[in-house]
Design brief:
Layout: E1 2-7, E2 15-19, H1 27-33, E3 51-56, H2 69-77, H3 83-92, E4 98-100, E5 111-114, H4 128-133, H5 143-153
Region (Disordered): 132-154
Protein name: Ferredoxin
Organism: Beijerinckia indica subsp. indica (strain ATCC 9039 / DSM 1715 / NCIMB 8712)
Length: 154
């Protein structure tokens, strides 16, 4: 079992629930089952409204998890996935801190899930084709991603 602690300005206090390791439900489904108000719109990884920050609480390196191309695109479009973080996820199997609750599968590790309660800005579907092509061209400094990677490797 995994302890999942949710923190948000929408909650009167942090709430910890238990996730079943091996269960293939998304973090969004777990939140909904426990009446935790993680915002969502599409439930498919397109809009970014369920953006969350995930921190592993046991001090170990986060368990690897595959990011779909759709999740990579949406996170990058919202400025939450730098080239460096994308490479760390693909090559070193170190997941980024920011994820989409509708895409994140709970693993057997204690995590803190932070969310603002304000849905992300939807991306105009007509722009998807052009923005997907430019995904590898998104420039960010990656400083936060380097610090995160160093902290989980330590």
């Amino acid at each position: 079992m995994a302890d999942i602690t949710f923190a948000s300005p929408l909650l009167p206090k942090n709430k910890t629930v238990y996730g079943i390791a091996g269960d293939t439900h998304t973090l969004l489904a777990v939140a909904r089952d426990h009446r935790i108000p993680v915002p969502f719109n599409c439930e498919d990884g397109d809009c970014g409204s369920c953006l969350i920050k995930v921190t592993v609480l046991d001090g170990k390196q986060p368990m690897g998890s595959t990011l779909s191309e759709k999740e990579k695109f949406t996170l990058a479009a919202h400025g939450k996935l730098s080239k460096e973080a994308k490479e760390l996820a693909e090559i070193a199997d170190i997941p980024p801190q920011y994820r989409l609750a509708c895409q994140y599968i709970v693993r057997d590790e204690p995590i803190l899930v932070e969310f603002s309660g304000e849905p992300g800005v939807e991306i105009d579907p007509a722009r998807h084709k052009h923005e997907r092509a430019a995904l590898n061209d998104i420039e960010t400094t990656g400083a936060e991603d380097r610090e995160y990677a160093e902290s989980v490797k330590a």
